Queue: 4 jobs
Job 1
Amino acid sequence: MPDNATATLKVNDPAPDFELTSVDGTKFHLGTYRGKSNVVVFFYPKDNTPGCTTQNCLFRDWHLEFTKFDAVLVGISSDSAASHADFAKKHELPFMLLTDEGGTVRKRYGVKNDFGVIPGRATIVIDKEQIVRNIYVSQFNINEHIDSALRSLQQIESAK
């Protein structure tokens, strides 16, 4: 599903601020990036599952392209910091994985469960002013998460 596919968050809305813990125990605060970097937040269901591994590895493989658009990548699931640390090390992930225990941030961003039980998969592009510029939601079309986010970042860059 394309833009505006979350329950409550829409393109051009202010991105809800949040703070979560990364694998090394440091806090990631979205507000820190205001005026400095675009942020691509991707919510995924679970570490070490086939679709989530594919998604994270695609973001890894395209990481350099995202940095060309001054974008910080952040993966979020409800897995523990220990699970994230093992997952990131195993797949050499160069971006932060954040623990959203209880799905608080997922809910603030309106990312619904699929089939009632599987945490949804959504990618949200947030510009430097912390405005939502793109929302892509699909549990199964994993490649399009990367393509959609990069197209959005290209549009942000072109609008300068």
Job 2
Amino acid sequence: MASEKEPAKGKNSGPLAENRKANFNYAIVETLEAGIQLRGTEVKACRAGKINLSDGYAAFRGDELYLQNVNISEYSHGNRENHAPLRTRKLLLHRKELNKLISLTRSGMSLIPLRVYIKNSHVKVLLGLGKGKKTHDKREDLKKKQATREIERSLRR
């Protein structure tokens, strides 16, 4: 039996990577799960946790959605067939979902990768549909967060 602190070993064992700054920089309205088309060494590097989502975004090229600026480092035991770290990767969605996203992204919304995880032995990306926050919105969020921390500290005493 796994303890509380250790991730459960199984088919779905926690996120491989998270974009922690996404909720700070964007007001996330909706989330959407998408598959991602990867090469073999990319999957192995993802499982090793060598993925960085901080500058990543999803954009349309024609009728298809692609993940860009996501850095998946080269696999350490790879050979000359190793992948390029900043390669553009195709996202796998149903046509209905793609049509909906096309209309929403034209209205000024952005698609941001929030989390990468494994689900039933497939690598999945959780995309957040959001609008960029202005500087004053970010300051307000920091003030609210600090106020709630102070309230919690005073209640503990």
Job 3
Amino acid sequence: MADSSLKTRIQEDVKSAMRAGDKPRLAALRLITAAIKQVEVDSRKEMGDSDVIAVLDKMCKQRRESIEHYSKANRTDLVDVEEAELAIITEYLPQALTEQEITALIEEAIRETGASSIKDMGKVMSIIKPKAQGRADMGKLSGQIKTKLG
């Protein structure tokens, strides 16, 4: 697979953050590069943009969950760190889908698959996932699909 332009952009931003002495940004970018490298080592292949987006999407989900847990525990110091990391990670994700775009995607996928019940959820998700990965919260999206099919 060809080298990822997104991965290259992240590596260039690591160098820029080093030169600027921006330690919080540098730390977050290093977390991103480490996560990408880990997946590359595990899968033994070079990652493309779609693979990098999947890793970033997973990192965002982890940060959102951590923010929720830290908020419940009144750990604002940790919430601030997670929110800062989340902001940096989302810079590299494609523009988020609007509610109308998500609804249109779901309806199109249901029509395309001929889905009629919750049993067809997997078919619908398999069509939507490549289009929505990194652009929408997949958990919320699956909830919306269940509502439409249920």
Job 4
Amino acid sequence: MREESGTRWQRRGSSIVFDPETLSPLLIGQSLISLRAFLGWREDWPDDPPGDGKTVLVGGLEPCLELYSPEEAESLLRYRIRPVVEEFQTRWDQRGLVFGFGKPARAFQLDPTSDEMTYIRQDLKVVRLAYSLWNGGAAMDLTQIIRSTAKGSEVIGYYVPRLS
């Protein structure tokens, strides 16, 4: 699997980031929007992206994945969220789209044989996150976002440069 230690994911493509230290600077500049507002773009697309930075941060996906059944969550990702992600990339290809999560890294599992990334809910049920959000075919482009630490490196999120 590819690894990204830079900031390219903040300027292009879409990401899932679960590291509070990495997410906190993205809260500056009014670039945080709710999942509801993000989904509303499908009906009424804004002229300009929110905030003044290169990154749009979407909050609220995690609770949906926890509350809906895994099948409903995957359907939400596939049929309601993915189309807005694709349109975002078409309209603002020089902006990064980040879905922020408050769960620790262990809530996300990666199958190294298929590059499928899943979300493990509190009730231990599994949501196929990469397949549903990034169309499965994007698995070839699935990249771990890493940060160097004193103990080596740690995964802070996942990134796909472009859906096609």
